[in-house]
Amino acid sequence: MWWPCGWEAVGVAYQPSPSVAGSSLPPLSRPQLAEARRVRAVELFEGGVSNAEIARAVGVCAESVRRWRRVWEQDGASGLRRRAATGRPPKLDDTQVEMIRAALEQGAQAHGFEADLWTLERVGAVVTRATGVVLSRASVWRLLTGRLGWSLQRPERRAVERDESEIARWIAHEWPRIKKGP
To answer: Residue 26: pLDDT band by 50, 70, 90 thresholds?
Structure first.
């Protein structure tokens, strides 16, 4: 078992170099940046550079470089490449997620709901109707926040009878009259 140290433990935000900052290239994701560091380390391994120099060059601790070198010596450069995520595959593929996105963007009323408000239960019903896949509330939440990028929005609760002009008049005239103090 290995313990992360240095920059890997706290995570370093990607800072593009000045030549890349103005380009149209998208910034590297965290896994892509980590793999790029390992690929650079392999180039330096092959050049005979010491572990300490490699650690400084790629911005990680020497223990990470030692671990990478052991993997490189045993499995070669392919041993340091990113691997596909393990675990259960998602129930919905990317095309189904895009179908759901399009369905949700039509609004809740377009799907027969009384108010144009999405709840986890309503989204789950739309997912089942659109794809035939039944998701738990937790899975619907992960779909909305993780794969669709939505966030929780709570409707503002205001009385229907609210009269803005009367409120403004009261604040301007009544409140100063009854307010205590200087």
So the answer is: confident
